[in-house]
Amino acid sequence: MDKVLIDTDVILDFFFDRNPFSEHAAKIFSLCDLKIIKGFITPVICNNVYFLLKRTANHEKVIEKLTKLISITEVLIIDNDIIIQAMISKFKDFEDALQNFAAEKSGNIDLILTRNTKDFKHSKLGVMTPENYLKSRTTFNR
User: What is the pTM of this model?
Assistant: First the structure.
């Protein structure tokens, strides 16, 4: 079973139905729900998604969506070591660095799914777009 960190952009593609990306995001979440892959997020991702969804929906509706999200994913830990690694890393985006090092430190993540693959060029993990990931796994396309 693949273990993937799902980046904020993929989650927002799904929640905001951003075409043409929402189809791939929905498939990723379906695979998580079916326990074919194991999805992970970070507290930073959860916070960002809350903040952005709150612009278009009330608190209760946003909490409902986040509850569903964390029911099919697992939340990684971000601690002092991860924050320090992120601060001294070569990552240009601090948020991406936090997510990357949380994924690396967990020892559970096979790859990061994001549409912004260039933002993770310094990652030791594999990085793919949801579309390319789904194409590469022919068993998902039956």
Answer: 0.93
